[in-house]
Amino acid sequence: MSAITISEDKCVGCSLCVKDCPGFCLYLEDGKAHVHDTGCIECGHCYAICPQGAVRMNGYDCKEEPVVSMTELDSQTLLAAMKSRRTVRQFTKQPVEREKIKQILEAGRYSPTGGNSQSVTFTILGCRQERAERICVDIFRKGQRIGASIAAPLKRIEISDSFFFKDAPLVIVVSARNSVDAGLSSSYMEIMAESLGLGVLYSGFFVMCARVSRKLRNLMKLPKGQKVVTCMVIGYPAVKYQRIAPRKKVKARVL
Ligand SMILES: Cc1cc2nc3c(=O)[nH]c(=O)nc-3n(C[C@H](O)[C@H](O)[C@H](O)COP(=O)(O)O)c2cc1C
Q1: Ligand 1 atom, smallest distance to 205 CA
Q2: 234 near 193, Cβ under 8 Å?
Q3: Which residues are paired to 33 by β-bridges?
Q4: How far apart (Å, rounded) are the C-alpha atoms in residues 212 and 217?
Q5: pTM tops 0.90
Q6: Which fold has domain 4-57?
Q7: How confident is the model over 134-183, as pLDDT tens digits?
Q8: Are 166 and 201 in contact (CB under 8 A)?
Q9: How far is the CA of 226 from the centre of ligand 1 (A)?
Q10: How many CB atoms lie within 10 A of CB 163?
Q11: Residue 84: CB within 6 Å of ligand 1?
């Protein structure tokens, strides 16, 4: 059964939904749109495009919210803000407000996913944050003892008790079956967090630990089949950057 139902009363047979359906699940018959039983990925394009509001998506919260085009954001300001974004590694102790956490998760929920899988999971470490960091610190300290005999610069790294989460008040682990989905979702969340005055650190080191430590994965109780893709360390920044960090020239090619 498809999640889509079309109200015959409201449908005027304009075929906008039929043309926009990526799965070819809709067809026009007797001047009305109809749905095939299979193949729908529930992307909601038919719901979003219908000028008559004739489409319903069963099992979804279909509350009406205004559509806002990205063109309403000033593109030059957006680009300048993207260039000014910095990874934050020093945080104040101020907790992140519940409303802001909700808004960050809402941004993550609305990123595109392959085949509209919507399988990205956001795990807030909460009361397990300290234990998770302890596990990571132990792994890295052990690794450092072994690795420093091979690579001298490893000795220099000071693995403090707060090496992974930098005393930040919020850590969100982003997992999915598909890494690209989780990566895109994280990027949406990062931009939202920044716009709320927060700073973000992607802890790739935490992700490395999650790959090798069953104990850490058990602690997070990840849904089956999901892999940890990013770990977002979030809080109010205790630093301010005065200028944009330079970058290498763009590697773009026209063939
Ligand atoms: C996937 C990913 C993993 C990262 N892991 C870490 C990390 O474990 N520790 C850290 O200090 N920075 C980490 N970073 C931050 C990068 O070092 C940083 O993005 C890069 O140096 C550029 O600085 P900028 O983000 O301020 O532009 C990570 C960034 C990404 C995208």
Answers
A1: 8
A2: yes
A3: 28
A4: 9
A5: yes
A6: Alpha-Beta Plaits (3.30.70)
A7: 999 999 999 888 877 777 777 788 999 999 999 999 999 999 999 999 99
A8: yes
A9: 23
A10: 17
A11: no
pLDDT digits (tens, 9 = 90+) for 6-44: 999 999 999 999 999 999 999 999 999 999 999 999 999
**At 46, which amino acid appears?**
C
Q: Where in the chain is the domain with CATH 3.30.70.20?
A: 4-57
Please tell me the predicted confidence (pLDDT) of residue 155.
79
Answer whether 203 contacts ligand 1 (Cβ < 6 A).
yes
Whether residue 163 has its Cβ less than 6 Å from ligand 1: no
Say which CATH topology domain 71-235 has.
Answer: NADH Oxidase (3.40.109)
User: Tokens at residue 57, please?
Assistant: 């998506």
Q: Is the CB of 89 under 6 A from ligand 1?
A: yes
Mean pLDDT of the chain: 96
**CATH 3.40.109.10 segments of the chain:** 71-235
For a mutational test of ligand 1's pocket, the pick from 82, 85, 87, 201, i.e. the residue with the most ligand atoms closer than 8 A to its C-beta, is 87
The closest residue, in CA terms, to atom 14 on ligand 1 is 202
